[in-house]
Design goal:
The protein is of the alpha/beta class. The chain has a six-stranded mixed sheet with strand order 2-4-1-5-6-7, sandwiched between helices. The protein has a three-stranded mixed sheet with strand order 3-9-8, with helices on both faces. A three-stranded antiparallel sheet has the order 11-10-12.
């Protein structure tokens, strides 16, 4: 399972620059709108000190981190929901990602053009939210029209499901009309399930990325405004300086990287902050497999049981699941070695109902 994250925002807020810094893939970046039309895709390793520690202990032939897929989507403008600025094409790209990283310009620079000729983070966020809501409203109305025709079917089970989806979509519609996201509407689990096929953009989780210059790394008035909006939405805001991230990406030595971050007053890079926040918002967890051949980090959903976690490695593991041998990373570090973990009775045999925890080190036994 890979985290798939679409980078969106107005033109010229720094999306492509941040994408290039995060992925070390050189997306086209220019001082004019719409220099990005086709979405660039980059694969990024998830920073995890626990995996580094496992590698130092097991000394495997291979180290495999969990990954995040970033998709750099071209800038949206006011009127995008009606096709302005190639809006329809860009909106279709957003529908295909798992969550949204909304880049907001949080720096003042007269030499870098702003599409509205002024830097106002609150207005910028409102423009994007309104366009996404209007796009969803159009999708919702077309979906309702189709569902109304579907009510004529004779199958009672299908009719009941259709009525459920219609009722839920009508519950969401007023929020979209007001420019609010569909996720702002309180829905029960069965209601959420009923509208899964509508593929509404504003049901996706959204995290804010404050793009700052060197003077704003530790915050400024723009960042404060974005954080307030994020907090009100139950989301998070991270601060990234594209220039610093690009410099950091060129440093290979871990100690030198740590020193660089310390010098600018940060505990971790903007990339790490963004990924960790995304994991929290999406309810993702990491478990590990470790041995002489390979140490690897795997991504699962919170609440996944052992067979589901095994299925992330290979579908055969889930089908033929027998049991899981499990210990926790913290116990391994505290006791110093896998034999010491076993000797202390910290290695457990777990069955099909075991909920895999973040930081578990697991060996699956299966039969197919």
């Amino acid at each position: 399972m890979a985290l798939n994250c679409g980078i969106v925002g107005l033109p010229n807020v720094g999306k492509s620059t941040i994408f290039s810094a995060l992925t070390s893939a050189k997306a086209e970046a220019a001082n004019y709108p719409f220099c990005t039309i086709d979405p660039n895709v980059g694969i990024v390793a998830v920073p995890d000190n626990r995996l580094d520690k496992l590698v130092s202990m097991f000394k495997p032939k291979k180290r495999v981190p969990a990954i995040v897929e970033f998709v750099d989507i071209a800038g949206l403008v006011k009127g995008a929901s009606q096709g302005e600025g190639l809006g329809n094409q860009f909106l279709s790209h957003i529908r295909e990602v798992g969550m949204i990283a909304h880049v907001v310009r949080c720096f003042d620079d007269p030499d870098i053009i702003h599409v509205a000729n002024k830097v106002d983070s609150i207005d910028d966020i409102e423009v994007i939210h309104t366009e996404l809501a209007l796009a969803d409203l159009d999708t919702l109305d077309k979906r309702l029209e189709k569902l109304q025709k579907q009510l004529k079917v004779q199958d009672q089970a299908v009719k009941k499901e259709t009525e459920k989806e219609i009722a839920t979509l009508q519950k969401i519609r007023p929020a979209l009309q007001e420019g609010r996201p569909a996720r702002s509407v309180s829905l029960e689990d069965d209601e959420l399930e009923s509208i899964r096929g509508a593929f509404l953009i504003t049901m996706k989780k959204e995290i804010f990325v404050c793009n700052v210059d060197e003077t704003g790394v530790n915050g400024n008035a723009h960042v404060d405004a974005v954080r307030k909006i994020a907090e009100g939405m139950g989301s998070e805001a991270v601060v990234i300086c594209g220039k610093f991230e690009a410099e950091l990406a060129d440093i290979q030595d871990p100690e030198e990287k740590a020193e660089f971050l310390f010098d600018i007053g940060l505990k971790e890079s903007g990339l790490a902050s963004l990924i960790h926040a995304a994991y929290r918002l999406l309810g993702l967890r990491t478990f590990f497999t470790a041995g002489e051949d390979e140490c690897r980090a795997w991504t699962i959903k919170a609440g996944n049981k052992a067979p589901q976690a095994a299925g992330v490695i290979h579908t055969d593991f889930e089908k033929g699941f027998i049991k899981a041998e499990v210990y926790h990373y913290d116990d391994l570090v505290a006791l110093g070695s896998e034999p010491a973990v076993k000797a202390a009775g910290k290695l457990r045999q777990e069955g099909r109902e075991y909920v895999v925890q973040d930081g578990d080190v697991v060996f699956f036994k299966f039969n197919v």
